[in-house]
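Records of this kind hold a single protein each, on a pair of labelled lines. Below, a sample record shows both lines together.
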Amino acid sequence: MNSNNGFGKKLGKVALVALVFGLVAGCVFAGIVVLTNKLTGGTSESKANGSVIQGTAVSTASTVSDVSDITGNVLPSVVSVTNVSLTQYRTLYGVGVQETPSAGTGVIFAQDNDNLYMVTNNHVVDNSDSLTVTFSDGAAVPASIVGKSNSADIAVISAKVSDIDQATLAVIKVAVIGNSEDLVVGDGAIVVGNALGYGQSVTTGVISALNREITMQDAYGRNIANKLIQTDAAVNPGNSGGPLLNMKGEVVGIVSAKYASTGVEGMGYAIPSSSVSQIIDEIMGAKKDNTQEKDANAKGAYLGIAGMDISQSTARQYGIPTGVYVAKVYEGSSAEKAGISKGDVITGFDGAVVTSMSQIQNILATHNNGDPVKITIAKANNGYQTTKVDVVLGGAN
């Protein structure tokens, strides 16, 4: 027993000596490195085959865990968008249409005396029968589409200032649009949006990649490729159309999609603000030109229908003509007075072949209240046989 205790004491002394030697040696080595750097003016680096490999620089970035100040300032510029769209379904008797509600997000970017303007995704407002925007204080008002780019998946919508209470106008804000060209991979990122339709929520992450070429299908089934910003900030259904923010609280992108696949996490995409700003300018410029033309030629024209585009593939699938499917005819409208009914397909308008609702809207923009036009329709109650009807256009709402 005594011999074992003696051996233990000896072992303890050896360990102590080794520890002291290690500490002294480490300090001496560190001192040599520091002294060498001071004498040579060098930094941490290695040499391989005579080439100097620079050491990594010490980062000055700080971890941002609290973004409440940023989001508190930006949330009043974010709106929830509710779209009641018209979707087709096939029945034993032909084509049926039902109203389908969906949720998205928008960003307030401008205001004039009459309207508040918001940017969102085109797919958020596609096939819209009615739009509603809900502000950060919970107030909700109707909205309408100003213009859109299907290929870029961007739309501009507006709400009348007269529909918004003064209390809400005192709370909401116009967002600051930043420059996405200044982004670098690793920058902090914030996503704000109406996730799952539950109202505003915030997620954080980083800019994962820039100029990612992502191919997605547009509303007409065509493959569209765009260069997008990738982020690992959580993106969920309902976030579409919402802002991607930098750490200054500037909008540097409009959230467009999430990559959804088994085993894939943290891959959300946003349209760069540089592209968004250009599209907004084009849409607002077209609106201004159109408004000036209408002011010069009296009020614009109004037909009084809600329509859906019938592409060639849809026409083949449902056995109906290509054109614009009349999903709703508004009471007292020019369309109703001319005998146009729900289920009819408009194939011609004012001498032009019609293949989309946007074509009809463009043609209407060239007419005025009271103008007579001929419209070619395929009547649903007559086996889609075509006929021409005379329509006296009403005034725009």
